[in-house]
Amino acid sequence: MTQPSLSECRSPWVVVTRQDDPWVAAEVAELRRQGGTVVRMAGRELRDPASLFAVFARELSFPGYFGRNWDALADCLHDWHGHEFRGQGLAVLIEDADHLAHADFLGLFVSVLCQAAWQANLRLDADGIRDEDWAPFPLHFVLLATDMEPTAFAAAAASGKHVRVAFDGGRLTATLIGADWPGSDPA
Hints:
The protein has a single domain, classed as Barstar-like (Barnase, Chain D), CATH 3.30.370. It contains five helices and six strands; from the N terminus they run E-H-E-H-H-E-H-E-H-E-E. It is of the alpha/beta class. Strand 3, helix 4 (about 105-120) and strand 4 form a beta-alpha-beta unit. It has a six-stranded mixed sheet with strand order 2-3-4-1-6-5, with helices on both faces. The chain has helices at about 20-35, 50-60, 70-80, 105-120, 155-160; strands spanning about 15-20, 35-40, 90-95, 140-145, 165-170, 170-175. Helices cover about 30% and strands about 20% of the residues. The termini are close together.
């Protein structure tokens, strides 16, 4: 299987790996070389949906009308770049993700992240046709485990709607599956 990428518009959309995985440093360097942005968040701050929404809004400077719910999170993430950042990538790295491994909302969270990334990376409309008004940009999420192995996240992540997880090179990868998500190749 091909290595995941943070600088290309392709799945997997979410990767769970160890904090010390050398792949992360190499991908972050490549994304930055291409003019992309890396945002780091602390997993310990994402203890419940309300705090998760607050941290994402703060760290990504979401607009004041952000609704602080799962649909609004997906919308603000895939629209984050606006016109001034066309084509530049965004990687959100969640450090100490161990705090999320057993969260009752992890499956929904991974599903929402995958949906936002699918929309940003592919920019397809409901018919699977590329949107003419918005340029695609690489949007990916990495959960960095400190003490736990990525396998500890598998069951909860796979419980997200339309989410498929796989293991590759010691990493857990997640993408969307099904007819509703054209172009979202398997993890």
